[in-house]
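Posted in: Protein Modeling Q&A

I'm a second-year student putting together a small comparison for a lab meeting, and my supervisor asked me to include a predicted structure for Riboflavin biosynthesis protein RibD. I've never done this before, so apologies if this is the wrong subforum. The sequence is pasted below exactly as I got it from our records. If anyone can share the structure token output, I'd also love a short note on what stands out.
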Amino acid sequence: MKIHEKYMARCIEIAKNAMGSALPNPMVGAVIVHKDSIIGEGFTNAFGGPHAEVNAINSVRDKALLAESTLYVTLEPCSHHGKTPPCTDLIIKHGIPTVVIGTKDPHEKVAGVGFKLLKKSGCKVVMGILEEDCRLHHCRFLTYHEKKRPYVILKWAESADGYLAPAQDLRDSDPQPYWISSNASRQLVHKWRSEEQAVLVGTNTALKDNPSLTTRNWKGKNPLRVLLDRKLRVPEHYRILKGDTLTLILTQMDSPWDNHPGNQYIKIPKNEFHAKGILEVLWKQGIASVIVEGGRKVLDLFLDENLWDEARIFRGPVTFGNGLKAPDMDANNEQIHEIGPDQLKIIYND
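Accepted answer (user: helix_wrangler)
Welcome! Here is the predicted structure, written out as tokens:
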């Protein structure tokens, strides 16, 4: 591995520590190298806190070495005042002579400006090291700014014979939760929720399963809960509308509970109540990533419009024989994992 690739790979590795906390900011990683030795590292703090470059520079004990060092960073350093000062100012202040960047920042306030400011100051800038890997790492941030929508993860569990749920007559005669995936798989889902900004379900899932959609089986923040409830059929006392976690209800109705604590209602016209319209609302709310955990109708909204980026599919050992069929997914780009008795298939939408 070449020297630049070696240290950029380390940047990506440490940047993963910001998963779930940095959003909607990018989860950037930065490494400072002096004479082929790492003297400083950092990743982006929780939203509103210091960026990766600042943390890396602050971690260097002997600041005099910075004038002889190379800074590696997964994303072009910011050049504007937001919740924190520009990272380019700090890099220039310390006289770091070389900056190696994974990929450009598409944010309208950066978009090449950071690169130009560093070059203008006399800094040598190397762009595009492990660019494909850095873009994959920053997929949520890049999707939000380049495609003007959140990064969409579809998630469901299906039986060994390909059903999302048993036939309705069985559910009526024997009303109970019909778990498909194992405890280990369900805990993994809670971990995923802690890593994304929002989790979305539809009316039927809310009514039949009465889910909390929290991270109660994993240490981490709860995501924003998004409920698609066209006719406001979900009762106010259901779990998804209660608790300390905010719920955003997207509806076609005028809300009778405008002042209900912890919830927000947004009315969407009937002709805009589709995947594109829903994602546009979430984008305007600053949501950079969403896990769709809905039933077949909600999943089909996103599949039919091809507005999804990943599908994470658990297949458990249980069989139903009949019931609600799971979506049929054909893909070339997939990963298979074993989670206890379950199989987890992850498909990327190319």
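A couple of things worth pointing out for your meeting: The chain has a mean pLDDT of 90. Residues 3-15 form the longest helix (13 residues).
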